[in-house]
Amino acid sequence: EIVLTQSPGTLSLSPGERATLSCRASQSVSSSYLAWYQQKPGQAPRLLIYGASSRATGIPDRFSGSGSGTDFTLTISRLEPEDFAVYYCQQYGSSSGYTFGQGTKLEIK
Amino acid sequence: EVQLVESGGGLVQPGRSLRLSCAASGFTFDDYAMHWVRQAPGKGLEWVSGISWNSGSIGYADSVKGRFTISRDNAKNSLYLQMNSLRAEDTALYYCAKGYYYGSGSYEHDAFDIWGQGTMVTVSS
Asked: Which end of chain B has fewer CB atoms at under 10 Å, N or C?
């Protein structure tokens, strides 16, 4: 089973700052099958990035994804107040199905 | 408006069964794979099961394999999850989610672009 480890567990930043969230896989992951989601309290997750770097419909361009192999990154260029939430990475592996990282909580400093 | 609405959750005793439903609207249901994803209270996301548009490709997480069955009725724009032999560790908010890729013949290699608000399942005596 491919395990996704996200870091940091919690990231404290101020609006306007840049956020860099990491997702590391225990085995190489096809970039085509790496996605990022945002979840706010009491809400369902929202797809941000698919295929490691493609923004989903309606996602602002301050969100960007990058990476390959075992290391992937979600970057938020300039934090807006509505960006403070929990972020999950997700991958598909043929032997284990879909797995999610444990999440990174982005909180206001 | 694209929408997924789950129903069927509730309180159930260990070992009993429950059937979840997901009603889809606002998109061509039979063009997309569909999935169930769950979230235990205060925890992260766990994929449960997925089904291709024509039910020809189905997959389950190891934690539910042999106990849960996913199905869909394209004529009714509905997705289902039959959950048998429920355990305390199945307690979670169950989300229905739409696969992103159009016309995929598989539940695999997908992202989940539309989510319902979830239905809560509590397994307790």
From this structure: N
